[in-house]
Design brief:
MetI-like fold, elongated, 0% strand, mainly alpha
Length: 252
């Protein structure tokens, strides 16, 4: 029977089984550590009243806005700076100083500058996604085979054409690693950002449920966040495979 199930289904079944065992062995009250059945009831409840879909829609809007902006800016800068080693040697120490700082550490300034609502979460997501993509892009550009660049020079390609037609396709596999890292990091900080300066979204749902001691709803929100994170990871995997097919790369 297990052979008929997909690895993802088996993983979910195993997780739920371990969760149920933990609630029984731990001896915690259901109100403090909700079992899967109680969380399932809470999930059905927020699906039935439609509130979860509103929070998901808002969270995904913030996520994709911040994430896509970060990708565009980081990839463009990375392609340029990767071709300008002197400029990168000056900027690299600054990036290495800023990169380890959690985006949440900037939240007091972000809220002061952008107020509450969508912008604080979008800015936090942008910061979380920007550095992994920038560093992977610069590293990838530096490792592009010099033969390709000589061919571009012989064909008298402009710098813009060389970046677009030669450097970007050749460096994309390494850039894709940065996209994966940035996606996971940005999704984590989406929730944190919505806990700081938002009145809606999945992060706000968790905080609001926690304040009302509805831990089953908190756990239901965590389940939704995890499932959406898995779906986003699969989505970027398919995007990577699609780009590789267009550029003649190996299927992911």
């Amino acid at each position: 029977m297990l052979k008929k199930l997909s690895p993802i289904a088996i993983g979910f079944i195993l997780l739920i089984a371990l969760w149920q065992i933990a609630t029984v062995v731990g001896g915690h009250q259901a109100a403090l550590f909700p079992p899967p059945s109680k969380v399932g009831e809470a999930l059905v409840s927020i699906i039935s009243d439609g509130s979860i879909f509103t929070h998901i829609q808002i969270s995904l809007f913030r996520f994709f806005t911040g994430y896509l902006l970060a990708i565009v800016v980081a990839v463009v800068l990375g392609l340029v700076l990767g071709r300008l080693p002197t400029a990168w040697s000056v900027l690299d120490p600054i990036v290495q100083v800023l990169r380890p700082v959690s985006p949440i550490a900037w939240s007091p300034f972000i809220v002061l500058w952008f107020g509450i609502g969508n912008m604080p979460a979008i800015v936090i997501i942008f910061i979380a996604a920007f550095f992994p993509v920038l560093l992977s892009t610069v590293s990838a550009v530096k490792k592009v085979d010099k033969t390709y660049l000589r061919i571009a020079a012989n064909l008298e390609m402009s710098q813009a054409e060389t970046l677009r037609k030669i450097v970007l396709p050749a460096s994309f596999p390494m850039i894709a690693n940065g996209l994966h890292m940035a996606l996971g990091t940005a999704w984590i900080f989406l929730v944190a950002g919505e806990m700081v300066g938002a009145q809606s979204g999945l992060g706000f749902l968790i905080v609001d449920a926690r304040n009302s001691l509805s831990l089953d709803v908190v756990m239901a929100g965590i389940v939704v966040i995890g499932v959406l994170g898995l779906m986003l990871d699969k989505l970027i995997h398919y995007f990577e495979a699609w780009v590789n097919r267009i550029w003649g790369g190996v299927k992911a």
